[in-house]
Design a protein that fits this description.
The chain is mainly alpha-helical. It is built from 8 helices and no strands. Helix 2 runs antiparallel to helix 3.
Amino acid sequence: MKRVDKIKLWISLIFRIFLVAAAVIAIIKSDWMNLGLSLVTIFLTFLPAIIEKRFKVDFISEFEIVILFFIYASMYLGEIHSFYRRFWWWDIFLHALSGLIIGLIGFLLIYILNKEENVAIKLSPFFVAIFSLSFALAIGVIWEIFEFSMDSFFGFNMQKSGLLDTMWDLIVDAFSGLIVSVSGYFYLKKDTRFFDKLEKKIIKRN
């Protein structure tokens, strides 16, 4: 097992121990809201593995580590430990980070597909950049729907101030995705060696 894979396993284990402890404390205190958040977060930490098994793909470990940190920071620290209320910039920071990560994922996906020899239509760097931005926005919208659903059906308060919170989240997602798409556009026009390395690593894992 590679070193990065071991790091991923240890990080996963530590995060889940914290979450189980939070669930037990929530039961003792009859805090059903935090219990629900803890259980949902535990499930989300298993989501990358579920996707890998269901769709027969193998994510690179670095990507899974980033996803785990994001889930931990948003659900455990943000919701259970009230970082969203304690630090006004926490939500902005997470959405900026997710916009960059998701934009890069979208860019890399279309970059790999666009290099396949049997693809009928080759996209220009401009359209690759547009897809990257659109992908970041689409995932941002799905997340806002998730927050709205949790608030509506389980009584959470993930959207905080409702429409205002949702719109600012989407604006930050768009800005972060735009940074990735514009940077990727100029990078493709000049050099693609960085993406070639990522492509080889992803293909090798799958």
